[in-house]
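_Per-residue structure_
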Amino acid sequence: MSPPTPTAGRSAGHSVGSGVGPGAGPNGQTLAPTASSAPGSPGSLRSANQSRVVRLLREGGDSWTQADLARATGLAPATVSTIVRDLHDHGVVDVVPGSGRRGAAVRLSPAAGTVVGIDFGHSHVAVAVGDLSGAVLRESRHHTGGGEDHGEALALARRMLDALDAFDASAPPVRGLGLGLPAPVADDVVESDAIFPGWHGVNAREAAEAVFGVPVLVENDANLGALAEHRVGAGRGYDSSVFIKTSSGVGAGIIIDGELFHGAGGTAGEIGHLTLDDQGPVCRCGKRGCLEAYTSTPFVQQMVAGQLPETLGATDVDHVVAAARAGNVAARRALEEAGLHLGRGLASVVNLLNPALVAVGGDMARAGELLLEPARIGLRRYALDAAASTPVVAGELGGRASLIGAVLLVAENTEVSASGL
């Protein structure tokens, strides 16, 4: 089933730079101080106009001319020219000659700096270097044993980024770092000792800043996946969407009115711990019958244990999917069961939030329609009629969604202005 043609629920004029908001992190912190100006003062107005221009440059890449910027912002052409000149003088933008003074292309300067993203998983570390628009420039991924504590994990990420020359003295300066963790995070502290034990009770922001020496923003990995899919993936242009990441755990990121929704304590989206059966198997969170216990990779692996042809070897997701596509009934049944349970969990989400779209990512999403069609069936079975037709599609960014989201998060929240760099 292909994604629908977006109509209702699309944001009007939504820009890449909106959402979390430039200069304000998930917990209200900024990555770079801005000039102190009283609201309504000339300095405040100048800074606000610069931010509007920079936000458009983040969205449009090399496609903006000064005339385009004036039309899009509603600012006078002379004001835009002054802003561009100031940003250029401070090394924030490059101006590429075109036809006439206002025909020149304006773009964020690579020399103005970079941002870094890190995605920690239960069995991987992925790192990326991006530009100030949030575009990934280079990246690396490393599989881990899964037993590392936070110090070992951060040290590995540092070595990986050093191999990418992220902090090389000759490279543009790193302006900030986005850190994704597969666990509930409140006030930068990992809340669960069962879900991500090597990080339990750790102030992840402080620990990472000590290792990398740059400002850090911390987010749940599903939230980062939601941000990335909303900005540049399957949810692009919708004003509300839910991203479900289903791998060894199950979590959700929620976009409402173009912004990440964190809840009162910062832990909204823990869909994996919805109770489906209070007499069901014990979940790693300590509760019984959680959705995660019925739709994550360990559930599928357990269902097919001893049932796959010997030629397929191990029972990781890719082997299960390959067996299902080759006609193995046990593998197909395992994916179908996981999808039906996922759809039941989604019914609770769409009944409550009524998002325009649900995008599914994580390791289990590699099963494609083998998982998604049963999920739609489960959704229709348990959701109210008004919500049962909510589109359920595969995320477009695959296993890179959380990493791309980490880069986007820090890029969007790094203040870029003539006074901020």
Remarks:
- Residues 1-24, 32-37 have pLDDT under 50 and may be disordered.
- The chain has three domains: 42-111, 113-225+402-412, 236-396.
